[in-house]
Amino acid sequence: MANLEDAAHFLRGADKILILSHRSPDGDTLGCASALSRALIALGKSVMFRCADPVPPKFTYLFEGIEYGEFEPEHIVTVDVADKTLLGSLEPYGDKTDFAIDHHASCRPFAKETWVEGTAGAACELIARLIPALGAEITPKIADCLYTGISTDTGCFRYPNASANTYRIAADLLEHGANAAEINRLMFDTKSRAAVALLKRLYGNMEFHCDGKCAVFCLTSDVIAETGASEDDLDGVSAMVRQVEGVLLGFTLREREGGVWKVSMRATNPADASVVCAKFGGGGHKGAAGCSLTGGLEDVKARVVAACGEAIKALENK
After folding, report:
1. CATH number, domain at 85?
2. Phi, psi angles (nearest 5°) of residue 99
3. Counting Cβ atoms within 10 Å, is residue 281 exposed (0-12), middle (13-18) or buried (19+)?
4. What is the reported pLDDT for 131?
5. pLDDT exceeds cutoff 90 at 284
6. 243 shares its domain with 113
7. Are residues 155 and 226 in the same domain?
8. Are 178 and 147 within 8 A, CB to CB?
9. 126 and 35 part of one domain
10. pLDDT surpasses 90 at 105
11. Does the pLDDT at position 233 exceed 90?
12. Is residue 98 within 8 Å of residue 112, measured between CB atoms?
């Protein structure tokens, strides 16, 4: 397994670099990609960026002013990608990836070299250490990118994955000019009317199972269409399902094409979301994990609820 020094050595000697983010990109994968892009370009490297899905509008500021090149890449780097299948339509690049930088303990290595630190609250924590090791400066714009990734992946520092080191790195980013107050406002305190309409529907139809210790949101295509919710409006919904008192495991089922349901699970200590999702071929962190299942809504929901029930019962029997 590679480390910080290996990553810095590789990137210092590389050029014509393609950076890949995971599909359905969030603030962490995009914060990593934009921050690393800015640093490498400042060092005179030619850089490209690709993602299978469009960058959500709320995150476009991360890439403002970046001048990407067009070339045949000589080196490929992934950021915050725990499994090559998470590259979506770009999965063929997985077997060609030279270096993967990730923070998921459940990471399934696919690159020639992989640097994983499962205790990091966000992959942006690794990039925040990597950029100085490359000999590049953390500018205010880079600090904004990194702070965005850290704040979104830790739920504005409310989740258990926010360690003392996470706070130290965030403080350093503020000293380098990160506009934390504005980023927090945009990420956590701003909702469109469509998002409010969606939340009204979800909370109105919220389900409880396992004596109230498991909660479920169902995001069907019809609900999304009727409320006019965009991808931006869906961001953060998964975290809300565990906010009800007494809930240990909460998950959101989101309908995809072809009868596929994306499961986004959140857990309250001592429950472990990654253990439950692993039963369905998924993974993630103790507090947040995901997987995908195929079938009808009621069947898929029953299967995931049953797995949550088993996990909760196991906790009660300890």
Report:
1. 3.90.1640.10
2. -145, 130
3. exposed
4. 98
5. no
6. no
7. no
8. yes
9. yes
10. no
11. no
12. yes
pLDDT digits (tens, 9 = 90+) for 161-214: 999 999 999 999 999 999 999 999 999 998 899 999 999 999 999 999 999 999
Neighbouring residues of 175: CB distance < 8 A, sequence distance ≥ 6: none
CA dist 164 to 3, 157, 187, 244, Å? 20, 10, 22, 26
Q: Which residues, listed in sequence order, are joined to residue 219 by a DSSP beta bridge?
A: 254
Shared-domain flag, residues 199 and 181: no
Which of 163, 188, 213 terminates a domain? The answer is: 188
CA dist 289 and 267 (Å) reads 9
Q: Given 140, 173, 188, which residue is the final one in a domain? A: 188
What are the structure tokens assigned to 221, written together? 């295509």
Q: How far is CA 123 from CA 69, 118, 240, 295, in A?
A: 24, 9, 22, 33
The DSSP bridge pattern shows strands 207-209 and 113-116 to be unpaired
Are residues 132 and 107 both part of a single domain? yes
Domain count, the chain: 2
pTM, 2 dp: 0.86
Please give the residue range of the domain that contains residue 263.
Answer: 193-316
Q: How far is 249 from 62, CA to CA, in rounded Å?
A: 32
- Tell me, yes or no, whether 274 and 220 share the same domain: yes
**Cα–Cα distance, 73 to 125 (Å, whole number):** 26
Q: How many CB atoms lie within 10 A of CB 31?
A: 33
Q: What is the 3-state secondary structure (H, E, C) of the chain?
A: CCCHHHHHHHHHCCCCEEEECCCCCCHHHHHHHHHHHHHHHHCCCCEEEECCCCCCHHHHHHHCCCCCCCCCCCEEEEECCCCHHHHHHHHHHHHHCCEEEECCCCCCCCCCEEEECCCCCCHHHHHHHHHHHHCCCCCHHHHHHHHHHHHHHCCCCCCCCCCHHHHHHHHHHHHCCCCHHHHHHHHHCCCCHHHHHHHHHHHHCCEEECCCCEEEEEECHHHHHHHCCCHHHHCCHHHHCCCCCCCCEEEEEEECHHHEEEEEEEECCCCCHHHHHHCCCCEECCCEEEEEEECCHHHHHHHHHHHHHHHHHHHHCC
